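Researcher: For the annotation table, I need structure tokens for Aquaporin-like protein. Please keep the output clean. Sequence:
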Amino acid sequence: MSSSHTEQAANGHGSGNDIRRLKTHDMEIGITEAVQRHAHRHVARPKPVSQRRLDFEHARPRWIREMAAEAIGVFFYVYPGIASQASFFLNGTEPIFGSLFQIGWAYAIGIAFAIITCGATSGGHFNPAVTICLAIWQGFPWKKVPYYIFAQVFGSFLAGLVLVGQYHPQMTALATTLKEHGLSPNMLGGPGSILCSFPGPTQTSYGYLFFIEFFVCSFIGICIWSVLDPANPFVSPTSAPWTIGLAYAIMIWGFAGATISTNMARDLGTRIVAAIFYGGDAFNRYAPIAIFVNIPATIFATAVYELILRDSFAIIAKGHTTHKDGEEGLVRHLTKTDTIEQGVSNTLRGQHGDDYA
């Protein structure tokens, strides 16, 4: 990305609603907003780009690229996790084949790889709740929300389909054994639970399961929003994907035993696969909690961050955005708060690269 494009993104002129963004290679609004504030890197000079290549890329619909990136990213996120679960559960939970600790890391690294490989194209949402919250708070275009969510669910569906194909003999044998004992394959410990979440036989309190899911998704939502905050001095381009991945991992380590989903797309896509291969009871009484709670929980978490933790003046002072009414609006705010001299000084210092005090 050129320095001019980087400056536009940093100043808020590269938002999803800006038509100029559609004719550039700016990264879409999302996780990668945490990256595009930083200086460009020095890398080996690439080979010259042909006009034929430029014509091809110009003619390629942007929405197809974004949908493909979201689907591939969710695949990269979901597949390592369910593959680790398959290795662990299909081998009798023997420690040599894995553990809950390994499964948590598989999801964390998968999320990081998803952001690294596909985030530059689509913004790295990989979660319907994140897409909706970016539309509510950050100006992501609402018209893009439906096809982003479709792509995310489709990516999860593909991950589940590929896994079933690779482990088909083992998963079919396990399903047959369970059916012989009068049990459903879509239960904890069955092949369906490798693909999506099912509560244990003693977990009969759906209010408790709702509360756990709501807490877990809220925790993750606040972590994601803190990474996206331009005023956060602790986030670097290299740490952003891993910070988000670890937020998911520690929730898995803490609450997998209580049954969690964490992501509508991750659960719904693979749950459809479970229903196709192991029966329609994959959409049982618990399914609405696994599929839908993530959205209101993430909206709640991001509202907490936006209304309580967000410091918009700090963002302006660091030069990452501007006041909606320009310099006059900023001066009006500083005058109203009786901090005009200190505020102008701090703003000028922040925009020249100094710390905002």
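Researcher: And a one-line annotation?
Model: The chain has 16 helices and no strands.
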